[in-house]
Each structure stands twice: as C-alpha cells, then as structure tokens.
C-alpha cells in the first residue's frame, strides 16, 4: 500500500475498507468440532481486521465495512435443521424444489431429498457470523440480524459524504442450496427506512453484497440480479460491489426504463482464498476503488499477489492489459443535476 502513490496513475490514500463476505473459510458439513473451528477462524479474522484498521485508520472500525458470504454459513446447523424425505411415492419433486420459499432441498452428494423441519434452528445458521459481527462493532452500535428481511446494515461515513449499505445475499442459502439471493423485502423495508431519515439526502449511495452476477460452468450460485438490481437503482444507489467470483472486474447494469442510467458493478478478487478456488489465470487480488464526485466517475485499480512475494498492479485482459479502468457514474450525475434543478425552483 505504501507504493500505491508511485503507481501510474497514482492511487490516493485509502479511506474505507469494504469486505464483501467470506470472512472465514468455514468447515465441512461433517466436522464434529465445527463450533471450536469456526470460533477460532473468526478470532483470527477479527485480529487481522483490527490490525488493518490500526495501520490504515488509527483503529477506527467505523471505516471497516463487513457483510457475510456463503463460507460464513454454518453447514452443520443447516443439516441439523433438516430431515430426510421419502421420495418413493413422490412424482413432483422438481416442483417441490422450485416452489417459492420452498422448505425442500436436494443433496447432490447422496441424491436425497431433505426438508427444513426446524425453522428457528435454520435461521441460526449465521449465528457464528452474528457473534463475530456484533462483537466487532460493539462500540459502533451495528448488529447483524438473523431475520431474513433485516439482514442489511447502513454504514454512514463519518463526514456523511457517502452511505454504504451492506446486504446479505444468503437468503435461503445453505449446505444444499448454493444460490445467492438478496431478500427483496429487505430492500423495500430498508428503502423506506432511508427515505424517512436524513440518509436519503446523501447523494453517494453504494450497495455491496457477496454473490456475483454470473456463475461459472454449470453452477447456479449467482445473485437474483433481475429482481434485485432494478430495485437498487430505483432506490438511488449509484454503484454496486460484490465478491464471490475470486477475480476483479467491472460491468454495467442498465436501468430497465432508461438504459442511459446504468449502475457500474465491481467484483473483487480474493485476498486469502484457497488457490484451487481462484479461476485459472488469476492470482490473489484486492481492489482499490477511487470515486470522483465532481467528475461523476469511478476508477478501479486491481492489485494482485505475484510470486508469493509482492502485491502489485494486475495485468487484466478485461482492462486491455492494464491494472485499472474507469467508468462513469450516470446515476450520481443525474442525482446531482436533479438536486441543482430543485434548488433553482425553490430559489
């Protein structure tokens, strides 16, 4: 990080750290010591994040923003909450699985059908993350809810220049269902909460979550983007950020009514992922994101781990061989122009 200002183009000092999930590596479903293992992993993660905050922000944890990923789901609790279902006389298993909010799950390992029998226990599958999160932000007042429609946190930067809203993309995600979903009710409820508060006056609104917009190969572990992204744009978010894909990139999602009002969505690489989880041709990475509120642009710099010795500027095919790229923020520009026009009318 000390070398970033010497880059071309130079990278300014970091103001905020956003962690888009997978705080820990998690444990296998059959790990009998899962509780002890998860607790140790979160202790290690907390120690690392506190050291990072001390190095960058003099220990200010308000500037470290966290949400969970699929590795934060306790698979052991998931399985405990379910019971096997006899499928001998069932003819519509696929329909049962596809029902809205279906309690049924199909295990691809043993090809058995399961049903959630204890919903309260099922809700607690993120209890270890919650304990970590609530402890980490004890003096800041942030807490993580186990209720699906309340798994959202609004982080306000100290000078109120920006609002970062973290959404859990783990709605219905468990040991057998690996899809990424943000509960749409969560977006509605939080949107009304913001609308009725001073947070609505903050023009720079950024949403972040864990799951990517697309899946690799035959997987289905992507976000319910067609439901979620239009809602985020309608609620004045100008930029989205996520992880999960283990590689840095940026794409644009167009508004369904006005394609000119698109939202850039930035994916982050993984700083500590297992090498086998990283896509072929990529290395461990992190992003540095630079927002120019006067030019209404966002610049993404991708840093990668080279030779197990140094973090330096990446050379990405997606960026034409460079380690950075820049995009416009048309939603931020439209918001600013709307406020100027409103002041003119009032004046």
Automatic annotation (TrEMBL):
Protein name per its UniProtKB record: Calcineurin-like phosphoesterase domain-containing protein
Organism, scientific name: marine sediment metagenome
Pfam families: Metallophos
Gene3D superfamilies: 3.60.21.10
Family: Belongs to the cyclic nucleotide phosphodiesterase class-III family.
PANTHER family reported for this sequence: CYCLIC NUCLEOTIDE PHOSPHODIESTERASE CBUA0032-RELATED (PTHR42988:SF2), PHOSPHOHYDROLASE (PTHR42988)
Keyword field contains Iron: yes
Gene Ontology MF terms: hydrolase activity; metal ion binding
Keywords carried by this UniProt record: Hydrolase, Iron, Metal-binding
Domain annotation Calcineurin-like phosphoesterase: ranges: 9-247
